[in-house]
Amino acid sequence: MTGRAAVGRVLREAAVHYTDPAHPPGCLIVSAAVNCGLESAEVEEAMRALRQATKAGIGARIAEDVAAGLRPEDTDVDSMAAFYAAAIQGMSVQARDGATREQLERVADLAMLAWPEGQCPLAEASSSG
């Protein structure tokens, strides 16, 4: 699975899970401990680390595409990872504010439209084969 497919899947699955009526809307990791006092600093740091790990995982998938020749070598992996992490986090907040699964699926679709086009020569050569 390409990084693009993986990120798209994560976004679509977020739309499903964030709106599942079997549990509170959104994502606890996204919304927990974002505005805490000193007494909760440890929890706040743990949640921040989990959010950063998610962003790093997205970046790793994008970097794999670069290494495989599916993305140009000058791809701004960190910025792309930050953008898609922000989309996931925003979807969580939207779900907490009452967004439906269908609305979040549309957000996921729109976020994937922002995936930069362009391939490196290796990818173009293998697709024309």
From TrEMBL:
Lineage: superkingdom: Bacteria
Its transmembrane ranges are: none
Does the record's keyword annotation contain Transcription?
Answer: yes
Tell me the SUPFAM superfamilies matching this sequence.
Tetracyclin repressor-like, C-terminal domain
The answer, when asked if Transcription regulation is one of the entry's keywords, is yes
- Do you know which Pfam families this protein is assigned to? TetR_C_13
Q: Which UniProt keywords apply?
A: Transcription, Transcription regulation
Domain Tetracyclin repressor-like C-terminal: from-to ranges: 11-108
Q: What is this protein called?
A: Tetracyclin repressor-like C-terminal domain-containing protein
